[in-house]
Amino acid sequence: MRVMPIRYSTDVDAAVRFYRALGLDAGPTSRPGVWVEMPAAAGLLAIHKAGADEAGACELAFEADEPLTDVVARLRDAGFAPRAIVDENFGRSVRVLDPDGAWVQINSYDRDLYT
pTM, whole model, 2 decimals? Predict the structure, then answer.
């Protein structure tokens, strides 16, 4: 599993310029430009277009390297209650609350769907 924080921004282009200046590379971008992946040595930063009410927010997400059904089963076996796996325009996703009540997103990507 790869760590992937999602940074919400009202100006995706400016955010990409900032993180490129920080040393990250621009990776796959969604066709409408609302999502940009920025690979790093230890994971991936995702920049996501947001409205003013979400600007500056950051969400903890992971990119699964196994079927989401396996992740969901493991979470349930450990006593957690993930939501149902949903189809997204990028692949599939599931959300679960961590012990402190923060949402964590686990994604399975099909980059042919959005790039």
Answer: 0.74
